[in-house]
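JOB MANIFEST
job_type = single_chain_structure
chain_count = 1
residues = 406
[input]
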Amino acid sequence: MIRRGITIVATIAAIGTFAALASAHPLPLGAHKAQTNLVTRTVSKPVKSAGVYLVVVTVRAHQHVESLTVYLSGAAKREIRASTHTATALEYHLTVSHTPAKLTARAVGHGPTFDLALTAIHEADKKPSTGSTSPPATPPSTGSTSTPSPSPALYPDPYQNTTPIFDDEFSGAAGSAPDSSKWSVSTGQGQCGNDTLNTNTTNAANVEQNGQGQLAITALHNGNSYTSAQIAANGLPAGPYGAVEASIKLPPGQGLCGSFWLNGQPTWPNDGEIDILEAPSLTTDPNYAYFTLHGPINPDEDGGNYQQFESYTGALGDLSAGFHTYGIVWSPNLIVWTIDGVAYASATPSSLVAGSTWVFNDTRTYSLILDLAVGGWPCDAAAPNTCPAATFPATMLVDWVRVYGQ
C-alpha cells in the first residue's frame, strides 16, 4: 500500500487449472492523450449452433501496458489495461438464439500495437452430457450481499478448519474504539499514492465499532479538508505462512481507496509488504481489486515504489454492493490471493520483476493494516474538479478479521 509512484505492472498467474480473469481500469480516454490516432483490432468467429457459449477474449500488449476498450457483440464493453507479460483474459457467457451467427470482438486503444484473440466454446460441449442444455442459473442482483464468482472452484485452503491465531469480530458497543489490546489507530497522512487528500485521526467519527458487529472506517469532508482512519494490528505472530482474511464492504464513490495489507517489520521495503486488497474507486464504484507485493529491488526503476508484483481483477463488478471476503493463502514460495474463497492471482519468486528479492519465506513480524484513503491513486487520472466525487460520509465496513498460522 506504500505507493510512491503510480507505475502499474499487471501479471495474471495460472493456479493449477484455474485461469484468472483479470482486467484493470484505464485512464479515461482523453485524460492525457488526445482522441486521435486510435488503433483498432477486430477478430470474429462464426457459430453454427444455437445455445450458450463460453467466450474468452484475450488481449496482450507488445511494448508497454496499454489502456484499451474491448467490445464483444452481445455484451457490455469492458475497459482494461493490457499487459506485456501475459495475456489479459475476459470471459463472457453469451446466448446465441439465431444461427448462423458471427461473434465479433473489437479492441480500441492508442497503440502502438497489441494482439487480440477470441475463442468460443458451446457450453453443451464442455460439460458431461446430462440431457439438458439449460443456460447457467441467473446470478443474484447487484444489490445482493453475495456476488457470484466467475469460477465455482474454491482454492484449497489448508487453514480452513484451524483456529485463528488472531481474530476480531468487532463486537464492541456502538461508538466504541477498536479493541486497544489488538489494534492501534494511526494518525498522519493517508496512503494511496501521490497526493492523498485525507489525514488520519483517532476520532470516533472516523473509526468506531458500530454496535452491529462491524468496524466502521469513515471518510469525512469538511470544507477543503478530508479526514479518515487507519488501524493496525502490530506485532502479529512471526510466521511466515498461513492465511489472512477479512470480510469487507467497500463504500461507493469515485476517488476513494480502501485497503487491507500486511507490512513487514521493521524496515520497508526490505521486510516486504503484501497488499491483500487495494480497491481504488477509479470511477463511480470500486470495480477493481488489486493484489501487489513490495520488497527489495536492485535497482528499483519504479520511482521508489519497490513494487515487485501486481495483478488485479474486475470480475466481481461493483465491490460496494455487499461484503466480500478478501484473503491470502501463504505457503513457501507461493502467495495466492482469494476473494470469497476463489483464487484470482498468485505470485512465486519467478513472478517478480527483475532484480527483486523474495523475502516472504523469512520469519519476521508483520503489521496488519486496514484503511480508507481519499484521493491519491484513484484521482491521478481525473480532473481536479471531478475527483473525489464520492458522497461523504463514506464508510468502509469490516465484519471480521482472521489470521491463521501453522
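[summary]
Residues 2-36, 127-152 have pLDDT under 50 and may be disordered.
Residues 39-125 form a domain with the Jelly Rolls fold (CATH 2.60.120.380).
exit_status = 0
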